[in-house]
Amino acid sequence: MTNQEVEKYRRPVRILHWVHSGAFVVLFLTGLVLFIPQLAFLAEDSWTRLIHRIGAAIFIIVPLLYLVINPKAAVRGVKMAFTWGIADMEWLRAAPRYYFLGDEKAMPPQGSLNSGQKMWWFLTIVCGVVFILTGLVMWFARTAAPAALLQWMIFLHAVVFIVAGAMFFLHLYLGVFHPLMTEAWKAMATGKISAEYAREHHGKWYEEVSKSKEQPAK
Amino acid sequence: MAEKAILYDASKCTACRGCQVICKQWNGNDEIIPSPSSGDRVAVKSRGTYENPPDLAPDTWIKMKFTEAESSGKMRWLFTRRSCMHCTDAGCVRACPNGTLYHNEFGTVSYNKDTCIGCGYCIPACPFDVPRLKGNRITGIAKADKCTFCTTQGLDRIVEGMEPACVKTCPPGALAYGEREAMVVLGRQRVDLLKSRGVGGANLYGENELNGLHVLYVLEDSPGAYGLPVNPRVPGATIAWKDVIQPVGWAVGGLTILGLGMNWLVARANAKKEEK
Questions:
Q1: Does A139 touch chain B (CB under 8 A)?
Q2: Average pLDDT over all residues of chain B
Q3: Measuring CA to CA, which residue among A114, A173, A167, A186 is closest to residue B265?
Q4: pLDDT tens digit string along B180-213?
């Protein structure tokens, strides 16, 4: 292990990540009571609903703040989520062997986000937008919206809840528990990863940063 | 215990609204003095009709609906009861996430206000637009309310062998109460009588709708003429949410955690092998 480190995530991105994921966890848990009747006693007198709304406000405002403060980085980030190529398909094909058996022969070198992270990032944006739009209708247009619309808002909110919830477990697992993802946690906690880890896991990106040392990463 | 039902006879109803009064009295639901600040409550104002208040509300569980219909140059005044129909296939019971709304031993729909979380999912799920939410729209702290068929805890008339308050008070005898089967028979007899008197469109509403309502209507015209849903159904989205989304959610969540656990075991074993 060399002591050399590279910056993976800058401070604003990390703050955005932690505040937003904190809000997500609060929203997830207070929404979960609707799926577990045995836990519904927690929701009696609607306290979870109040907490859910506070969480929702943070969930909506924080990304918007980031967008206002750091528009260039935000646009670049969003673009990244929607840019998919052949290398991503190769990655997806090779991923199971890598994540189970540690076999990285077929894994193409990755950018700042590997294809799996990019998939999660893409889902975060799409599910986030659906969450917010359907949630706002349920929150503010309860009486104004026609019953049929309201019902499908509830339905869609639940669909993205399942998708984002399941993928959230995956994200948490890969970031914290997977035996090979030794520094993913560090990247988001301290912002820095070792050059070695960067080379192995984000080869393409590492090359770019080493070429232009003066330019800050991402 | 046998199922109970209310039989409402529109041909006898004078729309005196005595049922509205006794309902509020028995259940301790305040009448609303309208004011600009009454917010989610239904304000009372003149709208050129005797119908009042204009809609059901958390404190108004029953109201008479007046419909003006014209046929062959004659104006007819059609009266209907707007209140919970106590469906057998009840959208609200299906939508309720924690069993707050349930079918009681009489087949009617009760709810436990203590456990209500205020999600309001019962409201769009109701084919008759009956439940109402009382609370703060911004904070989301709320409780749902609707007619309880006089089975409210502490105010339960049915268990005591009494008829619902609205039936008890009805001056023209337009409301009858008893075993559901007996009410169906009574309703059919009444329809036959009306037909023999020349009311060709007379019909019994609620016998089979939503697998049988526990409030049956004798109507002199088609249900549509009274503003009732002709073929009421539990909305597809309600069925999809409860019977598809909930089990799918559990399956997806469970399989994800299971898969990740398996991955961890396999990947860790491999990582250890590599180290050696």
A1: yes
A2: 91
A3: A173
A4: 999 999 999 999 999 999 999 999 999 999 999 9
Bridge partners of residue B7, in order along the sequence: B176, B216
Q: Please give the pLDDT value at position A86.
A: 86
pTM for the model stands at: 0.85
Query: DSSP H helical segments within chain A, as ranges?
Result: 11-32, 47-69, 71-81, 86-101, 115-140, 147-172, 184-189, 195-201, 203-211
Cα dihedral sign, A78-A84-A90-A94: positive
Nearest to B228 by CA among B105, B40, B78, B50: B78
* Between residues B185 and A42, the one the model is more confident about: B185
Structural domains of chain A sorted by starting position, each given as residue range(s) with its CATH number in brackets: 10-179 (1.20.950.20)
Higher pLDDT, A110 or B146: B146
Whether the per-residue pLDDT at A209 is higher than 60: the answer is yes
For residue B73 the two structure tokens come to 């140059």
Amino acid type, B147:
C
The helix (run of H) or strand (run of E) holding residue B128 is: none
ipTM above 0.85, yes or no: no
Q: How far apart are CA B240 and CA B165, in angstroms?
A: 36
Residue B171, both tokens: 């001056």
- Tokens 């008339």 belong to residue: B157
Task: Express each pLDDT in A180-199 by its tens digit.
Answer: 887 888 888 888 888 888 88
Tell whether the torsion through CA atoms of B224, B227, B232 and B238 is positive or negative: positive
Given CB atoms, is B55 within the 8 Å cutoff of chain A?
no
Decide if B135 contacts A53 (C-beta within 8 A). Answer: no
B/e letters for A108-118, b = 16+ CB within 10 Å, e = fewer, are bbbbbbbbbbb
Hey, which residues does B64 pair with through a beta bridge?
Answer: B81
Q: Per DSSP, what are the bridge partners of residue B87?
A: B213
For chain A positions 149-168, those within 8 Å of chain B (CB to CB) are 150-152, 154-155, 158-159, 161-162, 165-166
What number of C-beta contacts closer than 8 Å exist between A and B? Answer: 135
Residue indicated by tokens 């929404």: A31
Is the pLDDT reported for residue B36 higher than 70?
no
Predicted confidence at residue A96, as pLDDT, reads: 84
Structure tokens at A39: 């836990």
Mean confidence (pLDDT) of chain A = 87
Count of alpha carbons within 13 angstroms of residue A164, beta-carbon side: 25
Nearest CA in chain B to A43: B117
Whole-angstrom Cα distance, residue A24 to residue A129? 13
- C-alpha distance from residue A182 to each of A137, A173, A175, B250 (Å): 41, 12, 8, 30
**B270 — contact with chain A (CB < 8 Å)?**
yes
pLDDT tens profile A110-165: 877 888 889 999 999 999 999 999 999 999 998 888 989 999 999 999 999 999 99
Whether A29 contacts chain B with CB within 8 A: no
Q: What is the residue type of A104? A: E
Q: Does A33 touch chain B (CB under 8 A)?
A: yes
